[in-house]
Amino acid sequence: MAESHFPEPEGDLTDAKSLSPEQLGFMCGIEVHQQLATGKLHSRHPGDLYDVTMETLPKDWPRFSRKLRAARGEGGKIDIAARFESRRNRSFEYIQTPNSGLIELDDQPPLGHDETALDIALTTSALLDAKPVSLLQTMRKTVVDGSNTSGFQRTTLISTGGILPTASHPVGISVLCLEEDSARKLDSYTTETGECVIYNLDRLGLPLIEIATEPDVKTPEHAKETSIALGRTLRQTRQVRRGLGSIRQDLNVSIACGDRIEIKGCQDLDWIPRIIELEMVRQLHFYRLANSLRAELGLPNLPTDRRRDDETIEAKVAEKVAEHLPLKLNDVTEAFFDCESKMVVNGLNKSYVMLGLPLPGLAGKIGVKQFDSEGAQLPRLGRELAGAAKLAGVRGVFHSDELPAYGIENSHVEKVRTSLGISDEDGFVLCLAPQWQAELALESVLLRARAAWHRIPQEVRNVVIKKGAPDDGTTAPMRPLPGGARMYPETDIPSQIISTEKWQSITANLPMTDQERMERMTQFDVSLDQKDQILARELDDIFVNHLNDLPAKAWAAVLLENDDVDPILSSLVLTAKEQGEITRESINDVIAHFVGNMPDLAQIIAYAEENGLKPADESALAEIISAIVAERIDFVKERGMGAIGPLMGVVMQHAGAADGKAVSALLKQAILEATK
After folding, report:
1. pLDDT at 3 over 60
2. Which of 16, 199, 444, 471 lies 20 to 30 A from 492 at CA?
C-alpha cells in the first residue's frame, strides 16, 4: 500500500469522536473467551464456582505455595511476556477447592478433552461456517503470572476460516480454539522479596471457547456490533455459561501511525466504542510526541504508516536515544528526611529508599492530568511511565512535571535536581520502595521513556476499573504482547482425529436459530411478555421439553418464577395444582420446600394435605361465599362488583386453603345473583 494512502494523521485529541477511522488507517479484531456449561476440560471435575472471599474461605480448604519460572518455547526462546513476568519475583498461593484435585495442582497428567465441551466447540465452528482441523493437537501456552499452576495454559485449535455476519459488514473468523480457563485471583500482599498472589482453583480448567476474528472491524461501533453477534452465536448452542465474567472480550486495536495493542477487560459491551476511540487518541498522541522528540535530537520523523518503518533507521534512533537517556539511578533519600508527606514518611519508616532517574530534555513533556470533552484522562507520558513502574509491584512514582505535590515541597524538588545534576530543562522520576523493587521499577520507567522516541510498543493493556466498572474508558499497561515463543506441544494429551462422520453428525444436529425459536414459541398459548422473557432467559427448550399436558400460561409463569430450580420438580408441583391437590398460591412454597430433594407426585400431595395447602371443597367454598355475601348484602348492593376486592380477604380468612382464582370466580357469581 502506498504511503500516500495515509497522509499525516488528523484529529483533535480532546474530542475522540472526531477521529476518522478511515483517515487514521484503523484496524481492529476481536477475541472472545466464553466459558462452557460443562465440567472441567482435562480433569473430569465439576465446573462449580464458589462465591468466597478471603474472609469467608473455609478453613479446611488446603493451601499450596509455588514459584514459577519462564520456560523456553518450542523454538528454544523464552517469550518476551514470560521473561518480563519472571523478573517481577512473585510467589503464589493456591486454594484447593472441592472441585479441584491433583490435575489442577499440576501433580498429575491431564486427561483428554471433555467430550461435551469438544462437541460445543465443533457446533460453534459449524454455526460460524468455520472449517475443522483434521487433527487436534493440544498446545501449551506459557503463562507466568501464576494464574495457571503449571505455568502454561492448554489450548487446542479446533477450526479456522469462518465468517460472522453482522448488520454492517461480515467479519472473518481467524481461529476457534478450546482452552482451559485460569485460576481466580483472590488477593495479594507484599513481602520483603516481592508480591505474593493468592489464587482460587475453582475456575482453573473450566473449558473456554476462544474465537479470534480477522481485523475486519471497520469502526468502534462495529466492534460493539461484532461482539454482540459473537455472543449471540455462542448462546445459540444453549450450552454456555451466563452471568458476569462468563464471557470476556479482548480488542486488538491499531491505527496506521501506531501499532497493535491488545485491550483486555471489556466486560460491558456498551463501553467498547469509547475504549477503542480513546486508544486511537492515545496512539495518535504518542506518534506526535515521538516526532516532536525526534526533531529535538535531529532524528528523522516516523512514517505515517508503520509498514514503512526502516529497521536500520530505528536501530540508529534507539542507539542515539540510549545515549541520551542512560540508566543512571541515584539514591536521593536524604533530600526527603524533612519531608512531611504521609506517603514519604511511611515509606522511610519502613526503610524504603527514594531512587531518582534523570530524564534529560523531558521537562514539560511528561505531562500533567488533563481531560477530554467527555471527562476521560488525556494520554500523557507520565501515565505510561507510572504504568510501567506499577508492573514491578510499586504503587506508583513521582515525576518532575507534577511536582511539587503530594506533600513534596519545591525545596525537595530543588534538592533532587542538585543531587541528580540536572537543569530545569530535564525531567526526572522518583520511586520510593525497597531498593530492589525501586531499581526494577525505574528500569521499566527508563525503557518506556526511551520508547517515546519510537512508535508505541506492542503490549497488552487493561481497562482501568473503579468500583467494578470502567473508570473512563482509558487503559493501563499489563505486559508486553506475547509472541510465538510462548507456544509448544502438550505431550501428555494424545492428538485426536476429527473424523468426517463426527463432523457430519455435528452439522446435521445444529441448534435452532433465534428466529426458529421465536416461531416455535408462537405456537403456545402464552402472553407476549412470557414469550419474550422465556426467550431472553433461554428457557424455551425447558419450557417445551417439560410442558407435557400442563396449561402453557401456567407453566410459563411457574418456570419464570423458579428458573433456577430443577424443571421436573416445578412441573410436578404444577401438575399437583392442576389436579386440585394444592392451591395456586402455595405453588412456589411447595417448590421451595422440595428443592434439593426430588419428590414424586404422591409425596407432594401428602405434604400439601399435612400443611393445609389442599384447596377447600368447591361446594363448601360456595356455601361460605354465599353466607358472607348474604351477611353483607347492603355493602354488596352498594358497591356491586367493586365489592370483590374487599370480600376476597374475608372469604380467604374463612375458607383456609383455597385457590384464589376459584374464590374470585365463585364470589363474582354470588355477587351477580345477589344484585339481580
Report:
1. no
2. 199
